[in-house]
Amino acid sequence: MSAREEVLARVRAALAGAPTPPAVPPVRSGRPLEELLDRFAERVADYRAVVVRCAEDEVEERIALALDGARTVVPADLPWEVPGAVPDEGFTALELDDLEAVVTAAAVGIAETGTVVLDHGAGQGRRALSLVPDLHVLVVRADQVVAGVPEAVARLDPARPQTWISGPSATSDIELNRVEGVHGPRRLVVVLVGSEVVGRGSTLGGVGTVGGSSASH
Amino acid sequence: MNATFVGMPPFPSAARDALADSQLRGNLAKATGTIRAKRAAVVAEVDDWEELRLAGAALKDRALLDLDSKLVQLEESLTAAGAVVHWARDAEEACRIVASVARDHGVDEVVKVKSMATQEIGLNEHLEAEGIAAWETDLAELIVQLGEDLPSHILVPAIHRNRAEIREIFLRRMAEVGRPAPADLTDEPVELANAARLHLREKFLRAKVAVSGANFAVADSGTLVVVESEGNGRMCLTLPEVLVSVVGIEKVVPTWQDLDVFLQLLPRSSTGERMNPYTSTWSGVTPGDGPQEVHVVLLDNGRTRALADEVGRQALRCIRCSACLNVCPVYERTGGHAYGSVYPGPIGAILNPLLRGVGTDEQVDSLPYASSLCGACFEACPVRIDIPSVLVDLRAQVVDAHRPSAKPEAVAMKAAAWSFGSGARLGVVERLSGVVGGATGRVGRRRLPGGRAALSRVPFGAAWTRSRDLPVPPRESFRAWWKRTDGGRS
Amino acid sequence: MVTCVNDAMFPDTGKAVVTLLRRLGVDVEFPQAQACCGQPMVNTGYLDEAVPVVRNCVSAFEGYDAVVTPSGSCAGSVRHQHGIVARRAGDPALGAMSDRTYELSEFLVDVLGVTDVGAYFPHTVAYHPTCHSLRMLGVGDRPHQLLRAVRGLRLVDLPKAEECCGFGGTFALKNADTSVAMGSDKARQVVNTGAEVLVAGDNSCLMHVGGLLSRQRSGVRVMHLAEILASTETAA
Lengths: 217, 490, 236
Description:
The complex is a heterotrimer. By secondary structure, chain A is of the alpha/beta class. Chain A is 20% helix and 24% strand. Chain A has one domain (33-215): 3-Layer(aba) Sandwich (Rossmann fold). Chain A has helices at residues 3-14, 36-46, 59-67, 93-97, 149-155, and strands at 50-54, 72-74, 86-87, 101-105, 108-110, 115-118, 135-141, 145-146, 162-165, 170-174, 177-180, 187-193. In chain A, a hairpin with a 4-residue loop joins strand 5 and strand 6. By secondary structure, chain B is of the alpha/beta class. Chain B has 2 domains: 11-303, 3-Layer(aba) Sandwich (Rossmann fold); 411-485, no CATH class. In chain B, the strands form 3 sheets. A 6-stranded parallel β-sheet of chain B has the order 1-10-7-4-2-3, sandwiched between helices. A 4-stranded mixed β-sheet of chain B has the order 8-5-6-9. In chain B, strands 11-12 form a two-stranded antiparallel ribbon. In chain B, helix 3 packs across helix 12 (259-270), helix 9 runs parallel beside helix 10 and helix 16 packs across helix 19 (387-401). Chain B starts with 10 loop residues before the first helix and ends in a 5-residue tail after the last helix. In chain C, the strands form 2 sheets. In chain C, strands 4-3-5-6 form a 4-stranded parallel β-sheet, sandwiched between helices. Chain C has a two-stranded parallel sheet with strand order 1-2. Chain C has 13 helices and 6 strands. Chain C folds into 2 domains: 4-111; 124-230, Rossmann fold, CATH 3.40.50. By secondary structure, chain C is an alpha/beta fold. In chain C, helix 5 (72-80) packs parallel to helix 8. Classes of the chains: A alpha/beta, B alpha/beta, C alpha/beta. Chains in contact: A-B, B-C. The interface between A and B is large, with 75 and 99 residues. Strand 9 (162-165) of chain A pairs antiparallel with strand 9 of chain B, so a sheet runs across the interface.
């Protein structure tokens, strides 16, 4: 008998007389969140990422400020102009390691957890691109931000590879305290492009936050 | 050189050594104290935490109670997505599959994402014997590997080490296997993390083959999920040409949408964060992005044995968050090594006997007793595994496996069952203990606070009285008092 | 149900329960046939041995409206473990008393509806919520409600109160070292509160922590909740 047949046979034998699978009790879905974008910005900042909020026509300027002249790679189809950046031409890992920064778009933002999800589709590049350079500038549009994890999962296509990012690389492995900065990008700047809602009465200025001071504007 | 759990003594004696290690006690108290507070804070933020727990348990049960069809579905969707699916009955078979993939690509090293399944099957040792170096890339795993140590926690295998010990290990060992630690390395966690970054970077950038586990395997979409913090997982899952994932068959969840429940439960229970820094999901091969050859090894290795246990099968819901370890008062004091397995703590105390069976190994048989049944683990478990009930059931299995027994404990239990089987018989025993108590009470000089006579040494009672005083049995039992006074009415 | 431990080792607790319940107008009986609820056997894995013990327990309490016990652990055993033994024996009747068995504080607060039982106890007291009361039964703050209503009593906060004391039945013997390590930490927390008396709803846990407190010559005495609630100005 093949391993496959044997394991499946063992499973069937183990389940002989087992009860029928239970129904799944309902869980809240789509709890409305007021001030979704404020919550998102605050929760991203909690991870010591830098959050920059701006209007559509300011994105390129904000990206440039965040990059501060770093040698930058971008996906070839990035919808924003990044002067001086090289488009990804299938660089090897070693070549990517020579670059200092990357700018990508995003697929979904999650307000409740301060998470940005890349599905590595349009404007987001392949997975290695947003991994090897040490500074990741991530541009999220206001209409991409959802309330919670269930809404995000519902929007995403499992057939695409995904990277869920909640702050810069970190570890809790030393005495169970969180320390930022291990293998992934040690600095994360999230540019939140809010079309109509920008804080409470604030102007289109960015919201600088703790950490990563060199990347703040 | 790798350390091994093989030949570990039973829990009580392993625990005795651990309890005397003041460094260990201090490290554990600090780390578990930190994580308990963090977990409590982020769990309290979620209004419907209990509903999520119920849903998580039910979703896992739905997969487990229909596991054969879910596995076949998973295999189909993985294959359709371009992955090669292998099946492994046991550890040996799984190790052989991984080694043969590595050999096919002519490599003498692989990079590894932290994975409990590969720890469980002893993959590193197997690969080493075949001349293939397996580099652990998770910071805590790296600390354990460099220290030629054993893991002592599911999430943070080096939880028993503090920053000063980690610095010493890095300075002493990194140079032997790659880029040395900076000579001026201090014990600041940020510097230690950076030393790991530099040391591992060259390994990530040159690796051809990576090995991972998976936190979840989604049956309907063929998606594997790895939940991590540092980015070492992303490195391994993205940069090499070939990826082999060893996945326990209990990791199946029915549908993609079900992940929403688990991605809420896991990070908050595990590292005490709203969300872990990085979660990677992939379904087979994506042309032009990441590994172009993807293997998945579906592993049994005792899981079907656990599945057959009506009470114990709920342990297969486990999502390896380690919340039960962090809240366990026994684990907090003994640490993980005393459990003699890569799965320590409350979940280890049930999972090891369930995976390996009871009645043949004294060490395994000791694990269900390594608990005061306080229930803190059940309360913390995000998928509601009733660990105390499974422990009690496993204790019965251990006892039954050794029947008939002439051990003093078995004899004592028979005697207790006799005297506790009737009020009259218990009354006789109490009269006897009252006489003994009266006699010893007169000669004993110890007094408990409040004045009652106490014993500080009792024949056959050393396990109690080595450290604890014992009240002298009263001369009159409650039962005798009730009879004498008509329940206090006369 | 006075419990075997209280019957043989702590008769004063049983007497206190009788005094207290009579004061509150309850008709109290002590069926002489009772012995043990079966927990020591079940928790150690001796299910066959538990069967006659549970059978005796269930038959002793047949016909009573409510079974009250000054032990969270034994109440938990009746409610959650008699079913296990019933399945082992293939006799559902062994689960018959599970629904009408109450831990003392539950009976006082939920069934009798009282929190002020007219007690007087002019001492500083720390309360340890034993694991089975807290997590198996979910008695919550009922004991606190009762204690706060006791005149003269000063209730102090016990840090890490919800952590197990390390008794755990036969755990205290089979894993004596770990048990003592847990109990020592509990004893230290108790001493740090400055309390004169440690109170709990389970004498078995108190015997363990109290044995450590005594061995350390800490001067802290342990008392069952029932004994404090039974104390009055005349009797204290």
